[in-house]
Write a structure and sequence with these properties.
With 652 residues, this protein is mainly beta. It is built from nine helices and 40 strands. A hairpin with a 4-residue loop joins strand 12 and strand 13.
Length: 652
């Protein structure tokens, strides 16, 4: 009786809340879905909501497991129970909360061996004892003596603790640095010690809920997700410091979904949030650097896109930092609720690509609260509207009359999603060019890249150019290339300016018509590709719509080797007017040979240096430890995180 009464009370509260949000009819349907799901859970729930319990809960028809036992924590407590055991496999050596079992790809699906090799790059590493600092020697070629600076790269590295496993993107961040000076290279890696990392290290188990993982370590997880998350809107998640690392104005910071942490530029030790201006502002992992057109210097712009789905509003804040790392100003804009991942920066505008998405309420109340969907799955594509470009004047006082307000423009002839943008620039007649990697469907967890199976998930992104007319309120689209591409980079001296060359992570292999819907299936992300536009197509707006790719140069690191995000490095003492005078540097996952059945794959990591003009490899460095696939990073022209420069001389 108590449980029934509780269910009725919860559903009435949810219904009242939903009526306010989405109206009577839809809210009635959603509450019925949630109630039916909730009642199905009652037989397997404990008889009391008090602490000290040990019970079994059926999680799905494919995998049953014991729930966390002897839990005593409220929703946001630091306490957590022992790791759950996988109930259907007593021979496994690793216990983990059972996410939904992925479909087994058909043996006829293409690229299965390549996908398996690629996915071995998403392997968790141990904790702080994994950290290193040492010189690394070339295994092929030599480090160019005119290459100076530091490669910085961040990504989730530890997503298993004491037999428990989280999704890859929820792993604890590990920053890798390689300092280059006088033909030498010095490697260093260290975990970002956020407050959440420190607490979980002490207890040797996961404590805090995350964005991309279905299961939840909190006590009374269903109740917490329903009341604390959905009704109260408290969606704070674990800070893992894992999505980028930025070096600017003497400050080094690691960034996750919105909280930056200052790091030591000597040994990567975590100094903490709020240690400097760059680590005090709450911003995401994406940023841009631009030379101001008025000659006032170079600026770094970081941004935060805060969505409040309860009020259906978004607040975008752009933080502007000078070359000394001082925050100069914050530009704030409000608009309807939207998902925005990255932005383009031009002399005149901040430009956001507003992906057409919506809250998936049946998933929220039918799956998320019962731990069969993660937080990132609570939003879904919205095919009822087109993508939007939001153009926000950076200096309204410098704009002509009538062009000082925010402009919202529909994508007239292209329905797509876009996460990582290449570059953009203003044209002389007032238009704007916006280049990006476009997706034909919404997948926040990047499943098409992270977990390809050749049936439902495989790379399918395209290189797109949009030409936007802020005055006419129109946009036009040109597909520059149909090879799946992501993680684009340019010479950042050309950021926000007319440019020719871009460098991208690209897929290798194509099987025409092999997908169930008849489309082409592509191999995993493996190569780096340089795409060069025709020179005359970059400055004149009419030619921008007619512009085409002049050349493509692809570099494949080798069989069972997969290039990660590329970074452009200007040649020391090179020609500053020559856009591609420099090097491309990246980490490379080496999957090794296919192991025997039951054997573990021997994986390792290299650092590759390519000539940015020819895309030929000039040096390979073998790193002392395996580094999992990362997310983002940068190359700073400052030499840091290595020995004193005199110890990096050619004679040492």
């Amino acid at each position: 009786c108590c449980r029934s009464y509780l269910c009725v009370c919860v559903c009435v509260c949810v219904w009242i809340h939903l009526i306010y949000l989405v109206g009577f009819s839809l809210s009635y349907s959603l509450v019925c879905i949630a109630l039916a799901s909730f009642l199905r859970m009652i037989p397997s729930m404990p008889s009391s909501l008090s602490s000290s319990k040990s019970s079994l809960k059926q999680r799905s028809s494919q995998a049953a497991s014991s729930r966390r036992a002897s839990r005593r924590a409220p929703c946001r407590s630091l306490a957590v129970a022992s790791p759950p055991q996988r109930g259907t496999n007593t021979n496994t050596n690793t216990t983990r909360p059972p996410n939904k079992t992925p479909p087994t790809p058909s043996s006829k699906a293409p690229f299965q061996e390549q996908y398996a090799s690629y996915k071995s790059g998403y392997k968790s590493v141990p904790s702080k004892g994994y950290e290193n600092a040492c010189f690394v020697a070339p295994k092929e070629g030599s480090v160019p003596t005119d290459m100076r600076g530091t490669l910085l790269r961040n990504g989730p590295a530890m997503f298993e603790r004491n037999g428990m496993e989280k999704s890859y993107l929820d792993g604890d961040g590990m920053v890798v640095s390689i300092a280059f000076e006088n033909g030498k290279a010095f490697f260093r890696n260290k975990f970002v010690q956020t407050e959440h990392f420190i607490e979980e290290e002490k207890q040797d188990k996961f404590i805090f809920p995350s964005i991309f993982t279905e299961w939840d370590p909190r006590d009374n997880a269903t109740w917490c997700r329903l009341v604390d998350d959905c009704l109260m809107g408290n969606l704070e998640r674990k800070h893992n410091g894992a999505y980028n690392v930025i070096d600017w104005g003497g400050s080094l910071v690691a960034v996750d979904y919105k909280k930056p942490y200052a790091l030591s530029r000597t040994d990567l030790s975590t100094l903490g949030h709020g240690n400097c201006d760059l680590s005090s502002a709450m911003h995401t992992s994406h940023y841009r650097i631009i030379d101001e057109g008025d000659g006032s210097g170079r600026r770094l712009v970081a941004f935060l896109n805060e969505v409040n789905w309860r009020t259906r509003t978004t607040t975008a804040v752009f933080y502007v930092f000078d070359e000394q790392g001082n925050e100069l100003r914050r530009d704030k804009y409000d608009f309807n609720a939207a998902y925005v991942h990255d932005f383009i920066l031009t002399e005149n505008y901040y430009v956001l690509f507003d992906c057409p998405i919506k809250i998936d309420l049946p998933t929220v109340f039918g799956q998320y609260i019962f731990e069969t969907a993660c937080l990132s799955q609570s939003i879904a594509e919205d095919t009822t509207r087109k993508p939007l470009f939001r153009l926000m004047p950076r200096y309204p006082e410098r704009m002509p009359e009538g062009q000082r307000d925010v402009v919202t423009i529909e994508s007239n002839d292209k329905f797509c999603y876009a996460y990582h943008h290449v570059n953009g620039f203003d044209t002389e007649d007032g238009r704007l060019v916006f280049d990006t990697c476009s997706w034909d469907r919404f997948t926040l967890y990047f499943q098409d890249i992270v977990a390809p199976d050749g049936v439902k998930t495989f790379p399918r992104m395209r290189l797109s150019r949009f030409v936007i007319d802020p005055v006419a309120g129109t946009s036009e689209h040109v597909e520059l290339d149909d090879t799946p591409c992501e993680l684009p980079i340019v010479n950042w001296d050309w950021n926000g300016k007319p440019y020719r060359h871009m460098y991208l992570s690209t897929s290798v292999g194509r099987e025409p018509g092999a997908a169930p819907d008849g489309t082409d299936v592509h191999g995993p992300m493996q190569a780096l590709t340089k795409v060069s536009m025709k020179e005359e197509g970059c400055g004149e707006v009419d030619m921008c719509m007619l512009s085409s790719v002049e050349s493509k140069k692809e570099w494949v690191p080798g069989t069972n080797k997969f290039a990660m995000e590329p970074f452009f490095v200007a040649r020391e003492g090179g020609d500053p007017t020559d856009e591609d005078d420099g090097y491309i540097v990246c980490l490379v996952h080496d999957a090794g040979e296919t192991p025997a059945p039951g054997a573990e794959r021997d994986v390792s990591t290299e650092c590759a240096i390519l000539d940015a003009k020819s895309m030929e490899c000039v040096c390979r460095l073998e790193l002392p430890v395996f580094v999992p696939f990362g997310v983002h990073g940068t190359f700073t022209r400052d030499y840091c995180l290595g020995p004193e420069p005199q110890h990096m001389s050619a004679g040492n």
